[in-house]
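Lecture notes, unit on binding sites. The following record was shown on slide 14. It pairs a sequence with NDP.
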Amino acid sequence: MEKGKILLALTGIHPQRWHELLSAEREVVLEPNGADDPSITYAVVWKQKPNLLKSLPNLRAIFSIGAGVDHVFADPGLPDVPIVKIVADNLTQHMVEYVVWRVLDHHRQASLYRAQQHKKIWHEPPQRVAGDVSVGIMGLGSLGRAAASALLSLGFAVNGWSRSERPMTGVSTYAGEAGLIPFLNATDILVVLLPLTPQTQGIVNYGLLKELRRRNGLGGAVLINAGRGRLQKDADILRALDDGTLKEASLDVFEVEPLPKTSPLWSHPKVFVTPHAAATSDPAHLVPIMLRQMAAFERGERLENLVDRKAGY
Ligand code: NDP
Ligand code: OXD
């Protein structure tokens, strides 16, 4: 197969660095150019414009620059070609750091110490060890499993929930609808690393948060969402924080992004906000993986990390 040309179609992300790195090996056309171009065989995308890809008559594969692919499926005219998602050590490492950082911050009661420091209070509250707290990870995929390993090595009790059975040494695993409530009932700190699909949209709601365990001595359950914003109902999280169903939350993703300035989440004393920054897609690490995949594909090898179109992730 001939060396294919790339359409780079990124919305909300500056394309320059991606363009430079991809161009080192292949011809790259920057959207909005390229529509109808029969010599384009690959699209590298983030939130591509609706119906753009279906105008490419010889498109052979779509590469998402993120691990999540809901932004690709948002296109009503998505052509029926393979979609490749990102699985990369660098991105995984970023996510593991974020999860460990947020879990430890809640576990070690950082917000209490910050408040005490502000008032110059010298007081040592009771302390628990990690083994007294159970962290439940929704989504035991590449990111969830790596986060679970890191938390296990710190001594936390770890639960995991996935669509199909995903056994993992040292982790209590649960699967499917039948496993959800038992998983939540055994979880003090909930970490959400699910993809956004029609099945998972809105799953993090008040009813779900009510099921979390509250016997960790931290004074309540904790939510950490680094999956996607539309997995959660922002209003339900606020209600749960205000009535004590949740003690605290760390949110990296929101129903609407950027989080509107009017959102009460910005200034809520029990919420820690980051701007969808848990695990960044660094072109220096990800472009070589994409270029390797394209070259292998042209040698007749199978593409790796393919999205299951039916499952939506
Ligand atoms: P994977 O596809 O590797 O794993 C997804 C996991 O979710 C799998 O364990 C899967 O189950 C599970 N899952 C999917 N649907 C359901 C369901 N209906 N019920 C129960 N479990 C389900 O994804 P990654 O680990 O690579 O990434 C996860 C998500 O993290 C991405 O989709 C993206 O949205 C988000 N992300 C966020 C970033 C950020 O900066 N905030 C950065 C990168 C990713 P099974 O194992 O059975 O297939
Ligand atoms: C991703 C993201 O999906 O950064 O990789 O959200």
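Take-home: The radius of gyration is 21 Å.
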